[in-house]
Specification:
Blueprint (H helix, E strand, L loop, with lengths): L1 E6 L12 H6 L8 E8 L21 E5 L4 H4 L7 H20 L3 E5 L8 H9 L2 E6 L12 H17 L5 E4 L2 H10 L8 E3 L6 H9 L14 E6 L7 H17 L1 H4 L2 E6 L12 H8 L6 E4 L5 H10 L2 E5 L11 H6 L4 E6 L3 H9 L3 E5 L5 H13 L11 H4 L4 H16 L5
Parallel strand pairs: 1-2, 1-4, 2-3, 4-5, 5-6, 6-7, 8-9, 8-11, 9-10, 11-12, 12-13
Helix pairs in contact: 7-11, 8-14
């Protein structure tokens, strides 16, 4: 059995999205011939939401090592408060000791703390060790705001990304469009070195929610109101889908006020920033469309397992998609696993559309670039609001199996196998 050192600084009980790839793969990696060992950063050094119950999703036999971070007291005057930078020296030293003792065959960087990825070429040069990079988001943010600090950050990101991508054995990304971007930016990176891999569907996490009786406080499911839920980030890129939905809701209420005045649509955990500073942009958009009294937005993040409980407790689920055609499918999986009536409003070229069509797991309304919200609202009305009662989908679970965490882990391990064939010379 081969051994892979997974470097993923965020780790339970911290509940950041970028650690879920590694976390969900752990129960299945040995089935495909890989023993995972974990290097992460001290959770106490991170300001993210802490969810102690999430630790219970980690198999008992997984070995982990914890790197420390330089205190913010020392790095704050230099503008280096991010835990990725503050933990980088410790990750390098501790990772080196792990490599020397455990002799891993491969290093896998699965994180959006992108500066940590520079350890790949450093360890390759020192130990002759192959490494794989996992891009869950773009590293270089071309759309940063103007200003001296932003310009410097963008320049530094470009240089560090170029350094990290000088010698990877393989690159994984959730987005095919970002793979194309990286290949265009770095001609030495070949298509056969890249794998497009969404996150897997978290069946095991739903089992933990039920077994541990995880509760949620976002709404009371048995209070006499109808509760529809979306749990996840908001953003301006979702405004088109949201406006279309709100216009359809407004029209439905005009036609049948008694039916829809008892509805509350909850948008939960829509902003990653301090909730005291985060504007309730979705509530504002709903008010513009005449349904502000039916919509409630909680910008503050909640625990991951608690968010799954929100999906389970809802009467129905609403998932607005991005205007970006390359938006990936991973976020739809928990909504399917909740086994509730599901409305998804997505760009026609999103991979979410393929998943829902293959699995028949919910009602899909698509939109194209340049289309008006009013035309999409009309389709939402006829396909969703005019159906009484809204049916629970008859999901094809055999078709859905190809999107499971087990299947995605199998593809991940296959990418590791490709990486092992790459020459170290």
């Amino acid at each position: 059995m081969k051994r892979v050192l997974i470097v993923t600084p965020n780790w339970p009980p911290v509940t950041y999205p970028d650690m879920h790839r590694a976390r969900m793969a752990l129960p299945y990696m040995k089935e495909d011939g890989w023993e995972p060992i974990i290097l992460h950063t001290d959770p106490d050094e991170q300001g993210g939401f802490k969810e102690p119950a999430l630790v219970q999703t980690i198999p008992d036999d997984i070995r982990t090592w914890q790197a420390q971070a330089v205190s913010r007291v020392w790095t704050w005057p230099l503008g280096l408060t991010h835990v990725g930078w503050r933990s980088l020296p410790s990750l390098y030293r501790l990772g080196g000791r792990i490599i020397e003792k455990e002799k891993p065959d491969l290093v896998f960087f699965s994180t959006t703390m992108f500066p940590v990825m520079v350890l790949g070429p450093l360890w390759r040069k020192k130990y002759g060790l192959r490494y794989v990079l996992d891009f869950q988001d773009p590293w270089v943010q071309e759309a940063r705001a103007a200003g001296v600090k932003s310009s410097f950050s963008r320049l530094l990101d470009r240089k560090l990304e170029r350094y990290a991508l000088q010698s990877p054995s393989h690159v994984i990304s959730v987005s095919a469009s970002y793979v194309d971007t990286l290949i265009g930016r770095y001609p030495s990176l070949k298509p056969e070195q890249c794998t497009v891999l969404p996150f897997g569907a978290p069946e095991a996490d739903f089992a933990v929610v039920q077994a541990k009786r995880i509760s949620q406080e976002a709404f009371q499911p048995n209070d006499g109101w109808r509760h529809w839920v979306y749990a996840g980030r908001g953003g301006a890129d979702m405004n088109f889908a949201l406006r279309s939905f709100f216009l359809a809701l407004a029209d439905a209420r005009r036609k049948a006020p008694i039916t829809w005045n008892r509805l509350r649509v909850h948008f939960i955990g829509t902003h990653y920033a301090d909730s005291r500073k985060a504007p309730k942009a979705i509530e504002r958009l709903a008010s513009e469309c005449g349904v502000g009294d039916l919509v409630e937005e909680k910008t503050e993040r909640i625990g991951y397992l608690e968010s799954l409980r929100c999906l389970i407790d809802a009467e129905a689920l609403v998932v607005p998609g991005s205007e970006e055609a390359g938006y990936t499918a991973s976020k739809i999986y928990p909504y399917i696993l909740a086994r509730k009536p599901l409305l998804a409003v997505f760009h026609e070229r999103s991979s979410v559309c393929q998943v829902l069509r293959e699995t028949h797991a919910g009602e899909l309304v698509t939109f194209s670039s340049g289309e008006s919200p009013q035309s999409v609202a009309g389709r939402i009305g006829s396909q969703w609001f005019e159906r009484r009662p809204i049916p629970v989908p008859k999901t094809d679970w055999d078709a859905f199996a190809r999107y499971s965490a087990r299947e995605m882990t199998r593809k991940l391990c296959r990418a590791f196998g490709h990486a092992m064939k790459e020459s170290l010379l």
